[in-house]
Amino acid sequence: MHVHRHRAHAADPRVRHHLGCSITGGYVYRGCAAPGLEGTYFFADYCSGRIWSFRYDGTTLTAFTDRTAELAPGGGQSIGSISPFGEDGWGEIYIVDLDGEIYRVVPVDPVPGWSSYGTGWPGTNGVPSLALSAPPALCTTVAVEIGSSLGASSLAALLLGFAPASQVTPWGGTLLVATSSITYFTLGAAGLSLPVPLPCDPAFCNLDVFFHVLEVDPGASQGVSFTAGVQATLGI
């Protein structure tokens, strides 16, 4: 991941001197938490505490925006005397107040964690359930929670992929994951919470992954049932 630092040009008609007295240069956003800001450059004025952003493609400056009100921390706090900006290893941007406070730019609406899709295929006791215990944050372990349709010692397989699929099976229903890896395990009477460690690498920010569980079920049509799919967006 490459990070490019730019300077705001006071000669630009949108950044005239009457807006402030000392430009504090910032960073281009390359982070994970707010993918909609990808490629947006942030900078500020030390004297007024105003914060702006824009996009620059090497030729044209666009989307010039005053972010001051949007980035106000609230809770009786305020950002003033902005000395430097900062950037962490994940590409997230920080604003440093000369009084000692450090603020991170975060989205109002976070990246969705996960959602179900498809309908699954019923077994002896209906369609087995599949869910994640929490939003899939990088550098953590998320629990993939499976409800057993049989209720006792049923062999199952967790399918993981990086794309959805729509493949009709010989026994009925549709497989929902273009599988990259398979983990086999045994379901107990109350199902299972299966730990899945997530990578600690900024390169995986906002990557979509897909889960699907198949279960051996002798009482089901063709002896197999499976869950609906789960789509998860890896974030921080």
What would you note in describing this structure?
Helices cover 0% and strands 42% of the residues. The protein is built from no helices and 16 strands. It has strands at residues 23-24, 40-45, 51-56, 61-66, 82-87, 93-97, 102-104, 114-117, 130-132, 141-146, 154-168, 174-187, 192-197, 208-216, 224-226, 229-233. Strands 8, 11, 12, 14, 15 and 16 form a six-stranded antiparallel sheet that branches. A four-stranded antiparallel sheet has the order 1-2-3-4, with no helix packed on it. It is elongated. The model is unreliable at 1-13 (pLDDT under 50).
Which features characterize this protein?
236 residues, mainly beta, six-stranded antiparallel beta sheet, four-stranded antiparallel beta sheet, 0% helix, 42% strand, elongated, disordered N terminus
